[in-house]
Structure to design on (242 residues):
């Protein structure tokens, strides 16, 4: 394994991001973590040691988030992989439209700001890997979480476009779209009617393998590929009634 490799993970303060950071550190990667809850990042540095670097970041502070990403990369001596994992689902704001807008601000606008900045960074550097955490939810609209599913559809489609851009670039840039099913985390706390629920640790381990194997797509856990196939097969008029 190449000891010099380095990875930055957004939304590293809990759930999938935190477990993924732990795995990268355990494999000897310089690992950068970001999130708004700085006390958790400090806690992680105490636990993970010198291979872990961090910066407080709110992905909806667009300009600052872009600058912070590159400052962290510089502090780490460069960034080889970025995992754009920060995301929210249906966190209640003061009105329904504000709740929807907040989801788009974090999951879509925050995502594209950092994906676009990372692409430029890797083009200048000559190589790199952008990993986006979309979801199985990206594959269909769903009444109770319409903006969430739509936000994930957006980033999945965006990554496909960027993969095509990468193919036309002189740089060696890999775009990895990770599509988890249900994963136990703060995001799904209290959520009912879940099935095939994976722990954050198990999900992170499969995500790690997909990243190091430079996959373009990965379903997490792997059995969700079956659900993805079913969603593609079932006509929309039936999906709309389920
Ligand atoms: N859990 C699932 O079943 C599931 C399924 C499919 C896809 N996913 C996706 O996986 C990713 C990770 O989710 P998770 O399940 O691990 O949830 P989680 O435990 O709630 O983690 C979400 C992370 O995003 C960060 N975040 C939220 N808003 C942010 C903001 N404005 N700026 C910066 N960071 C922000 C949080 O950090 P701070 O609060 O400290 O900022 C936290 O570290 C998300 O993109 C989610 O949509 C999850």
């Amino acid at each position: 394994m190449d000891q010099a490799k380095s990875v930055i993970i957004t939304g590293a303060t809990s759930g999938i991001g935190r477990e993924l950071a732990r795995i990268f550190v355990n494999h000897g990667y310089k690992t950068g973590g970001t999130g708004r809850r700085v006390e958790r990042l400090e806690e992680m540095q105490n636990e993970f040691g010198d291979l872990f670097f961090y910066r407080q970041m709110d992905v909806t502070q667009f300009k600052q988030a872009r600058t912070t990403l590159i400052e962290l990369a510089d502090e780490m001596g460069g960034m080889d992989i970025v995992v754009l994992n920060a995301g929210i689902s249906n966190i209640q704001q003061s009105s329904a439209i504000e709740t929807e807008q907040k989801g788009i601000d974090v999951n879509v606008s925050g995502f594209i700001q950092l994906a676009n900045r990372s692409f430029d960074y890797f083009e200048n550097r000559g190589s790199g890997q952008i990993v986006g955490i979309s979801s199985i939810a990206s594959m269909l609209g769903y009444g109770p979480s319409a903006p969430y599913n739509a936000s994930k559809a957006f980033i999945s489609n965006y990554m496909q476009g960027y993969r095509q851009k990468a193919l036309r670039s002189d740089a060696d840039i890999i775009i990895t779209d990770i599509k988890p099913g249900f994963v136990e985390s703060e995001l799904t706390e209290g959520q009912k009617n879940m099935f095939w629920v994976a722990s954050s640790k198990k999900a992170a381990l499969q995500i790690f393998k997909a990243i190091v194997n430079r996959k373009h797509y990965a379903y997490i856990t792997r059995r969700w590929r079956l659900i993805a196939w079913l969603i593609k097969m079932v006509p929309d008029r039936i999906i709309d009634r389920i």
